[in-house]
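As a warm-up, study this chain.
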Amino acid sequence: MFFSYTIKKTVCFLSPLFILIGFFLGTPMISYATLEELEAEAEARKALPIESNEIENWPVGPAISAESAILMDSNTGVILYAKDIHKKMYPASTTKILTCLLAAEQGNLDDMVSFSHDAVFTVPVGGSNMGMDEGESITLEQCLYGILVGSANEVSNAVGEYISGTIDGFIDLMNKRATELGCTDSHFMNANGLHDDNHYTSAYDLAIISSHFFQNEMLCKIGNTPRYHFEPTATQPDDFYLKNKHKLITGEISYDGIIGGKTGYTDEAHQTLVSCAERNGMKLVCVVFKEESPSQFTDTVELFDYGFNNFQVMNISEHEDEYQMEVSGFLQTGNDIFGSSKPLLSIDTDSYVIIPNTISFDDLDSSIDYSSSDENRIAQIRYSYHDTYVGSAYLNLATDNTSTYNFDTNIETSNVSVEKTEKEAEPSQDNTIFVNVKKVLLGILLFAGTVIMLFVARALIMNNQNAKRRKNRVKRKQKRRERMQSNFEDFDNLDF
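Now compare it with the structure written out below.
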C-alpha cells in the first residue's frame, strides 16, 4: 500500500523533470521574472493607495506588498482595512473556501465520495494533489481534510461531482451561491482554483464567502488542522500524511487566536492567502492577493495586529440613548395592561459596533431603516463614522417567550451546517420606550385617540340618558302634585 502511494507521488514529483525534457525537445520556454524583478514589483505594490487610510480620523493601516487586501469582521461585515478590495483578481486555491462551504451546506460528512476518471485526470499532473486514483472513494469529511489541509485539486473535483452530479453543475452552483451571498466581482470556472482567465473574484467577495465559512465550527476545525493522517481502507489503500502549508496554522509563524485559513498559488495569481483570527470579541477575516512568499504570511500578521490593536467592540444597547426616553409602567409588558415585565420595544442586546479606539459611541451617525422589519423586528438602526459602516442593531417587539437574538452579520448566514451559539437575552430592568419609531407612535396615538373617543361618546350617551330619566321623574312628581292639589280643591268645595 505504501509502495502504491509512493509511486503515485513520485510521478507527481517527476513531472517538472518531464517538462524540462519537453523544453529540450522543442517546447517553447516560459519566461519567469527574476528575484530582483519580483522584489521591485512588490515594492511598487506597497505604494498603491489604501482606501481605508482616506477616512478621516481612521487608524492608518500598514503599507503591504499585496496588490489587493481586506480586513473584515466576519460577524458584522465591518471593513477595517481596504486596499483595492473590488479589483478582480485570480484567487488560485483560495477558491476551495467556497467549494468546502458548499460541501458543508449540502453534503453529509459520512457519505462516500467516489473518484471518477474526469475528477482525477482533468487536473495537471504536477498540480497539488493527494494521489487519489480513479475508482477509489473516501468520506466527505476526509475529502474536506484533503482539500483544506492538502489543497488536493482532484478531491475538489470529486466533491463537486458528489454535490451536483457533474463538475459543470457544481460550477453553476458556485456562481449562484456567490451571488446569493452578495458577491458582485466574482466568476468561477472550476472547483479548485486552477488558472482560467475567466476565473476570478475580489478581496471583498472572498471575505464575504470566508465569513460564512468561518461561522461553521466544523469547517474551522478542519481548516485549522496542521497535519492529517490518511489510513488505509477497503476503498483507499494508502497510508500517508498531509501537511498544511499555512504557516500560521502549522505554528511556523506563531499567532494567538488563529482559527483557520487557506493558501493559494499559481504563476498568474502569485501567492494568495485567506486567514481568520479571533480576539477581543472580534473575529477578523484577512484576504491578501498577489504576494511573494513569505510576505503573504507576514503581511497577514501585520493586518491582524492592526485590527486588534486599533479597534474596539462596543455594545449598542448599552450605549444607545438617542432613540429612547424614560417612562413608567405604561407600554411596559408585565404586571400591567400587557401582562409581562419587559419593555414593549428594545434593542437586541448582542449587537455591537466596531470603532477606532480614538473615538466614542457619541461620534457615530445613525439612521433607521424600516424596510428590514419582519414579525418581531420593527426597524434596523445602522451606524456609520464619516460614511463608513461600523455596525447595526434591530429594534425588537417584546414577546411572551424568553427572547433569543441572533447577531446580525449584515450578510446572509448559511442555513445548513452552520451552528451559531445563541444566549438568552436578560429582561431589561429599566422602563424605556423608544419615541422616534414613527410607525409605532402613530399606532399608539390612533389607539389612544380611539379609546378616548369611545369614552367620551359613552359618557355623552349616559349623560343624555340620565338627563331624560331626571326629566321624566320631575314630570311624574309634578303630575302627582297637580293631582293631589286637584283632590284637595275638590274636597274644599264639598257642601256639608
